């Protein structure tokens, strides 16, 4: 399945049906009066976050989504049938933006979130609605309201607890493959990762999702390399894991390049909790490890950890360091939703 995280769609809600002009014409009933029914309501266009999707590729092949129109009313006070709604099923984490792409209309960041994008037009009134004591045979009816037509952008930001950052060949995909069942492409040349990969990792009976995005290079915010378009997929993460290649000859420059790109991108990424890891230490001796770690900490990195994704040395310690910020975010989310952990209640009883 191809990965697509940005696409344009054209939607239109259904128009309401026209009201009917009709009169009763039955044997032995004189002065039957009006009996034209109302038109049906047009179908609306909705967007809903569903499970089992992690790409917007379906919207590349179907960009136009039009709801059904309502049917017109009829005699004998019969109301027209309402038009069927249509639902755009999108992955969790999808943002819906206006045509210019500047304003976020809705952010479907939770499973089951549902938003109305275009309401269907109301059906017109039939002539029965206009009957009065002084106008007992009205010959007028209302037309149905037109539908709403809009052009929108869908932008997917993957939901992950941890975001992997680093230059190309920093070992991000190797780390993801070593800690989860994900199988990203791994090779000895830059930019082997061309789109984000997700993996579920576990440590100490806690599971969380890690997102591996394509590597950044200096000037990514200006479009160099693959650019910084994939940084949006780590905006929602609770903590960032910054991997640095320990075998690189420009260690400090590599570290500052990623920090500079985070600052240039904005969106609060530079202020997120961050775990800095010196990777590929299996190729370094004890003296080199200590020297490089001191160099990184002197450059501004805090609590630099040592790890090798190939030999899995230090991997468990890194996962435990990530676990704290992840659980803190989950606790804050539960508190914001009023969903208290059952273990924290005084009586220990579960409540819905």
Outline:
By secondary structure, the chain is an alpha/beta fold. The chain contains five helices and 14 strands. It is rod-shaped and about 110 Å long.
Q: Can you walk through the features of this model?
A:
This protein is α/β, with parallel strands linked by helices. It is 18% helix and 22% strand. The chain has five helices and 14 strands. The strands form three sheets. A six-stranded mixed β-sheet has the order 10-11-9-12-13-14, with helices on both faces. Strand 12 (239-245), helix 3 (251-265) and strand 13 form a beta-alpha-beta unit. The radius of gyration is 29 Å and the shape is rod-shaped. The two termini are 38 Å apart. Mean pLDDT is 88; it is low at 345-352.
Q: What is the H/E string?
A: EEHEEEEEEEHEEEHEHEH
Separation of the first and last Cα atoms: 38 Å
The tally of strands reads 14
Gyration radius from CA atoms, angstroms: 29 Å
């Amino acid at each position: 399945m191809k990965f697509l995280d940005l696409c344009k769609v054209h939607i239109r809600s259904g128009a309401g049906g026209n009201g009917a002009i009709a009169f009763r014409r039955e044997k032995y009933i004189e002065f039957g009066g009006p009996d034209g029914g109302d038109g049906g309501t047009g179908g609306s266009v909705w967007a809903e976050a569903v499970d089992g999707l992690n790409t917007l590729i379906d919207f590349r092949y179907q960009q136009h989504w039009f709801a059904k129109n309502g049917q017109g009313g009829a005699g004998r006070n019969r109301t027209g049938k309402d038009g069927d709604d249509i639902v755009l099923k999108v992955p969790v984490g999808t943002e819906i933006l206006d045509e210019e792409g500047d304003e976020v209309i809705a952010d479907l960041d939770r499973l089951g979130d549902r938003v109305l994008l275009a309401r269907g037009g109301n059906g017109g009134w039939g002539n029965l609605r206009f009957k009065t004591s002084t106008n007992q045979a009205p010959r007028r009816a209302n037309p149905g309201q037109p539908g709403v037509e809009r052009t929108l952008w869908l932008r997917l930001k993957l939901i992950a607890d941890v975001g992997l950052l680093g230059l190309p060949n920093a070992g991000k995909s190797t780390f993801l493959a070593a800690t989860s069942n994900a199988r990203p492409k791994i090779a000895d040349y830059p930019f082997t990762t061309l789109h984000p990969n997700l993996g579920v990792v576990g440590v100490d009976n806690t599971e969380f999702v890690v997102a591996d995005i394509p590597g950044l290079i200096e000037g990514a915010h200006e479009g160099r390399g693959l650019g910084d378009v994939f940084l949006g997929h780590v905006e929602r993460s609770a903590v960032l894991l910054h991997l640095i290649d320990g075998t690189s000859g420009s260690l400090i420059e590599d570290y500052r390049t990623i920090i500079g790109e985070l600052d240039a991108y904005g969106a609060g990424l530079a202020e997120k909790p961050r775990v800095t890891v010196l990777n590929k230490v299996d190729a370094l001796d004890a003296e080199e490890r200590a020297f490089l770690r001191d160099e990184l900490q002197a450059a501004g990195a805090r609590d630099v950890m040592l790890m090798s994704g190939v030999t899995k040395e230090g991997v468990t310690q890194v996962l435990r360091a990530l676990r704290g910020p992840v659980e803190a975010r989950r606790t804050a989310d539960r508190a914001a939703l009023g969903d208290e952990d059952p273990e924290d209640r005084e009586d220990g009883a579960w409540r819905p």
